[in-house]
Amino acid sequence: MADSKELVLSDTACSPEFIQELLPSSERTALLYHLSYLCLGSFPKLERLIRKQALETQLLFGSSEATLLKCVGTSNNLVKSLLPSLKVAAEKNKPQLALKFLEKAKEWISDIIKDVKEIVQRYDKHNSDVAKSTSDIISEKEETEKKKQQQTSEMEALQKIVDGLETNLQNINKELEDSEKKIEKKNAEIQTFISSITNTKDEQMMQTPAGMPMMGSSVAIFSMMVPFVENIMSYICKMVTATSQESMVKTLQTGLSELTSEKQRLKEHECVSHLNEVQMCLSQIQQILVQLQKFWEKVGSLLDTLKQRTFAGEDWIDELADLKEQFLESIDAAKEGWTHFGISCMKANNIFSIQSNQAYKFLEISPSSLSKEDWEKEYNNVKEKLEKIRPNTVNHKAITQ
Hints:
401 residues, mainly alpha, Restin-like protein
């Protein structure tokens, strides 16, 4: 191992490049969940579903924070305690003691590698759960569109019936009006005739022979009353028909009003449009979760590399007298690598800590409880924040070897 400096990690391992993908990705994740949560105020079932996935992401970020903190602790223990002790044992030619320190280091490193692998698996499973939620959103969107179309068809059919009944009712009302005029006219004729009878009664009595009944006026009155009664009966029938149809029109109009209100409610909430937005948000969250999973895979790869560098001189312990210098150089190289790794993990830990503790407070308030003005203000605020975070800020060269 003539040039042990080749084993040292690149300086970028402790630079912001190592965690550059974390900050925008984690921030966008919380904002996308927030936007989805706001858009589902009209869908209680989907609102609970998004809430569940957001809480799971928050818990996963909390676990990420804890795992990174453990990485920091292990790095510090190796750098400040175990590796210096290993170096002293090598300098004093105590191979058995050096082996004990190496075994302890192997135990610590294997432990955090196991934790990192578990985090990778959890990200993979969570991504699958979010994908299923996306599928549920798509199904709900299709169902909502179908319901909206069905309501439109029902409204059109109902409106057609209402229009027909209203036209018929207008015709009946016109006939009623005509009947009322005929009745009034006939009533006037009868009153005029009765008046004429009263005025000429004495004269007729004088001209009529004794004992002969006066049938003319009675027959005349009866003949005038017959069409009068017919008009009244017709009027009554039409009144009954009109009342019945008017009642039916009112019933249908009530149903039409309810459908109109439901359609207006859907329109006001822009349900389908919002479901489209939620679908896009969840798709972006899936992409981010894949990026975060890759981040942890890179952490795992880096740990494997550090493990190899830490134990690079293990085979030389039996020949410490001859290979002491090379062994000590391998310890220094491992120490530098673990120092850089610990610094990077601390920075990443801070990012996950902020996101897991503060970014998901929006879940404390149901979007359906917000007024229209507050909802629009919060919605626009989240959209504005999202636009300021470029989705392509991920640096895929996060770790260089």
